Amino acid sequence: MNFESVMQELEALGKERLKKMYMSNGAHEPLFGVATGAMKPMAKKIKIDQPLAEQLYATGNYDAMYFAGIIADAKSMTEADFERWIDGAYFYMLSDYVVAVTLAETDIAQEVADKWIASGDELRMSAGWSCYCWLLGSRPDVQFEESKIARMLDMVKETIHESPERTKSSMNNFVYTTAVSYVALHDKAVLTAQAIGPVEMKRDNKKPAILLAADNIQKAVDKNQLGFKRKYVRC
């Protein structure tokens, strides 16, 4: 499939209901409103195609950008490529579920994520913390430096309530993911979640969300999910 046929297929798959839902979460035109599951048949045909992914991502169309992440050749992408992609990620569903997910499949993931966390830019910070969630939730524990993850938990405890709104969500999810997927620091993550307590995240045109990492961790414990690792990062 080439660029034109993919765009035509995405448009045909679009649903007005999903388009409205995506827009309520921060997406803007152009977009079609395609369910992620509906993209799978195309993804199976194309598999991996980085040049096509770049064409799709450059459109600024949310659905095309999302699909670009599915077919991207992540391991061929450089830090400069990811900087370009995060520059184009104008809301959290792109920064956290496209760019961060794609970055999580690379060898430079932690290096780039660390820079984004330290950037002071809301969506870069959110993508950086989200990338660690994808990493911790899929890679063996031995690939992480325990003292580094522990310092990151301390950083969350000290800064989450003053952090940018979307970053709060990703930091909160980092605490949860560490508790569930990085068993060596489960206890520290639980204590961190208890220390930060409820986190209020303000949202445009919506009521604030109250984030409760401690409650979600306990639910995972009750379901015997400790040590969970997903087989694939990308769908």
From TrEMBL:
One Pfam family matching this protein: DNA_alkylation
Top-rank lineage group of the source organism: Bacteria
Official protein name in the record: DNA alkylation repair protein
Organism: Paenibacillus shunpengii
